[in-house]
Write a structure and sequence with these properties.
The complex is a heterodimer of chains A (405) and B (154).
Chain A (H helix, E strand, L loop, with lengths): L2 H6 L14 E2 L10 H14 L9 H20 L8 E4 L2 H16 L5 E5 L8 H10 L2 E5 L9 H7 L4 E7 L11 H10 L4 E4 L11 H4 L3 E5 L10 E5 L1 H6 L10 E5 L2 E4 L13 H17 L1 H21 L3 E3 L9 E6 L4 H9 L3 E2 L1 E3 L4 H7 L4 E5 L6 H17 L3
Parallel strand pairs in A: 1-13, 3-4, 3-5, 5-6, 6-7
Antiparallel strand pairs in A: 2-8, 7-8, 9-10, 11-12, 12-15, 14-15
Helix pairs in contact in A: 2-10, 3-10, 4-5, 11-14, 12-14
Chain B lengths: L2 H4 L2 H8 L12 E7 L4 E9 L5 E9 L2 H14 L4 H16 L11 H8 L11 H15 L6 E2 L3
Classes of the chains: A alpha/beta (405), B alpha+beta (154).
């Protein structure tokens, strides 16, 4: 694959940003959008717009078909058994909230335990915390090791006969650790515990096969997969979607509504109340096609090369300290520079068009454990090049110069 | 925009070696502030004597060069001032960071004003304004005996 060609498919790189060529190293936060996705939103709104699933006029039927085509594309992309196992949400956050809320309602009671890890994003902790407050459940955290990874043994150590669900990241947005999710699922299932995978960082970078992973739930963020904001996916095994109560109530999710009672709609409508992010769902199909065209294996290979190059380069740069050293690692490099706070690093890098993120990356539990209030993070997407990493390195040197290091 | 405006020598100096860092024993007012988006936090301690004068002031916390320098310069500047004067300085400083071109208070000497103006570079960096103002809001909260933790995201 030719990265220059791929990069040209992203309009954001056409123009200078503040007089600089954009070096975008913040894809773990949100990825840039290829032209096909942007155009699809424009075309839908200008030529094809209608709400879906309600009216019978031409536009409504066409829009409904497009909307459902994305569901099938996602189903195939992640190898789900049934298209009804794909629920659209406003993002991965809502997908996790949906599971925590409905599973919590039905299966969690006082003293029950939910097992997370120390490297979870706040979106895979706060929804469970609500249950801790409402139902007096306990939350356990599997520990990270010195390399910033969570091993199968660390998970096993925290499983008790009170553990009712395990919810873990596929790929850490800070250390880049890829968790042994297949093994975790196998272990959990041997004890009859369902598993939710927070796939925000997994889905854009790794091959997804729900039959192989065999998890019960998998949460996906659309905007990190070269797709629009406002769209996410919850994959859930059909047995769960049939078994769990609905999440939000409203139009579209019902079967029959009477004064004395309500019955709910069939899957997947049961979980898609109200008018959904129609244009975004339809455009998300283009993101899937875009990734399929390149091939996830090629994306993985490219990002691995960038990662190896970036790690080598930054390790050579004195006073740069790389956070974590996982054996299986995705395209994320979090780092600190001794004597320069991450926010100062980010501001100084930005002056040269190098866009990174600084802060706790919504992982305060992890940063507390690492005893760091904040880190700087460079994360890769399919459009990044080794040249971007050279520019990162140069900008870090400029940073050191300003701070007289 | 010019990074030299933001990272002036005096900011780098105070950021690296903050003055009045650490808690002291006989404080009678204090308040905490934090910046939830970036994880910066500050705890301001001060002692007001019977004449409502700031006898001593210090802070604990961690943050970027801008926030550390701002807290350092602030604590230097308000020591020995009366509560009323401190509040006037805080208002003047926040007004300058927000919109005004210069400091107007007569309480500060010209060299003190120059020192404070070194923080005016953040005006060109909207995301960094909160770094410069966190300790100042926290100082106000301490003086007002507010139990509320100051957050910059309000």
């Amino acid at each position: 694959m030719n990265i220059d060609d791929i990069k040209r498919e992203f309009p954001i790189f056409d123009d200078k940003i503040q007089n600089n060529d954009l070096v975008y190293l913040d894809s773990a936060n949100s990825s840039q959008k290829p032209r096909v996705v942007v155009d699809r939103i424009y075309d839908f709104y200008t030529k094809e717009f209608s709400n879906v699933g309600r009216s019978v006029h031409y536009l409504a039927v066409a829009a409904t078909n497009l909307y459902e085509q994305t569901r099938v594309s996602v189903q195939k992309y992640i190898n789900a058994k049934d298209k009804d196992e794909i629920v659209f949400t406003k993002g991965a956050t809502e997908a996790i909230n949906l599971v925590a809320n409905t599973f919590g309602q039905k299966y969690l009671s006082e003293g029950d335990e939910v097992l997370l890890t120390e490297l979870e994003h706040h979106s895979n902790y706060v929804p469970w915390h609500f249950l801790r407050k409402a139902k007096n459940i306990k939350i356990e955290f599997a520990e990270i090791n010195d390399d910033g990874e969570v091993t199968l043994e660390a998970i096993e150590k925290k499983i008790t006969n009170k553990t009712k669900i395990i919810s873990v990241s596929h790929l850490s947005n800070v250390t880049g650790a890829i968790l042994p999710i297949k093994e975790i699922v196998e272990l959990a299932h041997s004890k009859n515990i369902p598993v939710l995978i927070d796939g925000c960082q997994g889905a854009p970078h790794l091959k997804l096969d729900m039959q192989d992973i065999d998890c019960d739930f998998y949460a996906i963020s659309g905007h990190k997969m070269y797709g629009p904001t406002g769209i996410g996916v919850l994959y859930a095994k059909k047995k769960w979607l049939e078994d769990l109560p609905p999440y939000q109530g409203g139009g579209g999710m019902i079967n029959e509504v009477k004064k004395e009672g309500i019955t709910y709609g069939e899957l997947p409508n049961k979980y898609e109340a109200g008018t959904m992010a129609t244009a975004q769902v339809i455009a998300f199909n283009e993101s899937i096609k875009f990734m399929e065209k390149i091939g996830i294996q090629n994306i993985e290979k490219h990002e691995k090369e960038l990662l190896d190059y970036g790690l080598e380069k930054l390790r050579k740069n004195n006073s740069v300290n790389i956070i974590g050293n996982p054996k299986e690692k995705g395209g994320v490099i979090s780092f600190t520079i001794e004597g320069v706070h991450p926010h100062d690093i980010a501001t100084i890098l930005d002056e040269d068009g190098v866009a990174i993120r600084a802060g706790h990356h919504c992982c305060q539990i992890l940063h507390d454990k690492l005893n760091l209030p904040a880190t700087a993070r460079a994360s890769f997407g399919v459009y990044n090049t080794k040249d971007d990493i050279d520019k990162l390195d140069e900008a870090i040197n400029k940073c050191k110069k300003i701070f007289n290091l | 925009m010019d990074l030299k405006d933001l990272y002036q020598e005096i900011i780098l100096d105070h950021g690296k070696n903050p003055r009045n860092l650490g808690k002291f024993d006989n404080y009678n007012k204090d308040a905490k502030g934090n910046n939830p988006l970036c994880g910066d936090n500050v705890h301001v301690y001060l002692r007001l004597n019977e004449n409502k004068k700031v006898e001593d002031i210090a802070f604990e916390g961690h943050g970027c060069a801008i926030s550390m320098a701002s807290a350092s310069i602030m604590t230097d500047m308000v020591r020995g001032k009366e509560e009323k004067e401190v509040k006037e300085i805080v208002t003047d400083f926040l007004g300058m960071i927000k919109e005004k071109d210069s400091l107007e208070t007569n309480i500060l000497k010209d060299d003190e004003k120059t020192k404070l103006m070194s923080l005016s570079g953040v005006k060109q960096y909207p995301m960094r304004v909160k770094c410069a103002t966190l300790s100042w809001h926290t100082l106000t909260s301490a003086l007002d005996n507010s139990d509320q933790i100051v957050k910059t995201e309000e």
